[in-house]
Amino acid sequence: MAHITLPQATVTYRELGPPDSPHPPILFVHGALVDSRLWSAVAAPLAQQGFRCLLPDLPLGAHRTPVTDRAALSPAGVAELIHDFLVALDLRDVTLVGNDTGGGVCQFLIDAHPERIGRVVFTNCDAFDKFPPFPFNAIFALMRSGLSTRLLTTLLRPRLLRHSPVGYGLLARSLDPALTASWLDPVQTDSAIAGDFAALARAIGRTDLTGIAPRLHRFTKPVRLVWGTRDRCFTPELGRRLAGLFPDSAVTEVANASTFVPLDDPGAVADAIAAAATLRTP
Question: Sorted alphabetically, which InterPro entries does this protein's record hold (predicted)?
């Protein structure tokens, strides 16, 4: 994996596909307590089709290197970090793809820094006052210190609990136990990473997306939504409401997929991204 040192943090990332691709680059943004491997089964076929795919591990709880500046650990702050990542790598006309908390971060990014973004693909994600949705709003409220974060996530060491509705069980139909365990390992074993996530949880508790929603109509470039219909956290109606904020939007509903639609149906997500990435921007 490559890494890049930004003022806020050192970010590790994977790059798949040809660096000189004729297509716009694709940047994948994951959510809280997961890392870029959420997107592996989506990015791999896109890379084989000739798309340049960048998959950063963002400081959202499953990262391995503590951040330099915890003041950056807010949704808007992580959006700034992603913007700095784009600038540092001189990425332009980017196809931005977000899931879960990462989709909320993407909304902050296109509100503050739309100039390097050519188009957006949202999969099931936070929107409006669902940031985060029940029951994760209650769980995050209990994780606002490093100690409580370590204690609560340690309770999820057994697979039965980790894949229950208070863990990852609401988010996907099929979960890899080794992958979900590795996502929680940093906050369970590293007090600095636990402190990073606690700072993020506190900031999320002070934030929602209703403030920026009325401004999102200013993003006139293509927006596509790929939405799992079995999601009890981010319902199809929420996806349709989010799509309605943008002048150029369309929704593809994916049956039998939940929040982690990149895991439940990576083919549907990859197809939608490939179609979106070829759209010309105004």
Answer: AB_hydrolase_1, AB_hydrolase_fold, Carboxylesterase_BioH
